[in-house]
Specification:
Layout: E1 6-11, H1 25-40, E2 44-49, H2 64-88, E3 93-97, E4 106-107, H3 110-118, E5 122-126, H4 136-146, E6 151-156, E7 161-162, E8 174-175, E9 177-179, H5 180-185, H6 193-201, E10 206-210, H7 216-221, E11 228-231
Parallel strand pairs: 1-2, 1-6, 2-5, 3-4, 3-5, 6-10, 9-11
Antiparallel strand pairs: 7-8, 10-11
Helix pairs in contact: 1-2, 4-6
Length: 236
Amino acid sequence: MRQYDRVLIKFSGEFLSQDHTTIHRNSLDYLATDISSLNQQGVRLGIVVGAGNFIRGAASTFSRVTGDQMGMLATMINALALCDVLQQAGTKAIILSAKAVEGILIGYSRTEALTHLQSGYVVIFAGGTGHPFLTTDSAASLRALEMNAQLMIKATKVNGIYSADPMKDTTAQHYAQISYDDAIVKQLHVMDMMALALCRDNRLPIRVASLEKKGTLQRIINGENEGSLISHREVK
């Protein structure tokens, strides 16, 4: 039985890349299938995609402002790709960008976002917040709150939050549930501190999970305990 009706999903740009391909069509199709299924069920979805398939690492060779501006443009490319695949699948989707690009992307407004969500569109938020020094995690938290989301899902390479990188440390502890404050104090680096604080101050729960297993999004929407939950209270 469905537990959430309005959700924002944040996934990294790296999720789109495979086999040294910057944007891999199979990855897009994989995401579009699950997103379209949820949309057909009436779940109102906002999407934020990062830029790691284009700019991660390379940005460090430029000034922070320039690197972040390049990242914003990369998120627009990823958004265009995802939107196109969703539309090809028959799903209504639209991009709202923090920075409008004449003839390509329309600018973001909360009113537009809420109207399109209510009309059954998947709304893809591009361009981050439109400002340097703020990550796409912060953009995801901000847009989730603006769209009145009940949950933010952050897709990662590992299924949840660990005390250390489980790919490097086999003794790493998995947290099924953890409080915002503990996630900040333990410096678990699941997302940036500003994004965590924003969710904490507005009591927006965050589900961190891997999308490697088919149907993960559906199980999360149904309220199943996939990955890890960050909320205002930690379960001992």
